[in-house]
What does this fold into?
Amino acid sequence: MAPGPDLAPFWRVALLGRCPRCGSGPLFSGLLAMRESCPGCGLDLRPFEAGDGPAVAGIFLVGAVTVVAALIVDVRYAPPLWVHALVWPG
It folds into this structure.
């Protein structure tokens, strides 16, 4: 489905974190904090609040990378348990 005249292309909105209406204004004011409105077109972004979704996604991503790295280190180098406790704080 092609975007309408007042909608930005989906790939730009999704991958770059841009306003769904104009495609130029950023959605986030910080790492995980959404803006209240688009600085480009003024679209009210408060109804689209993601809640804890971005934080949970970040935790799952970092956790998965950490577990994979810990398993690789354990299989390749077989360090004692106390080394794992120092390297992978949790």
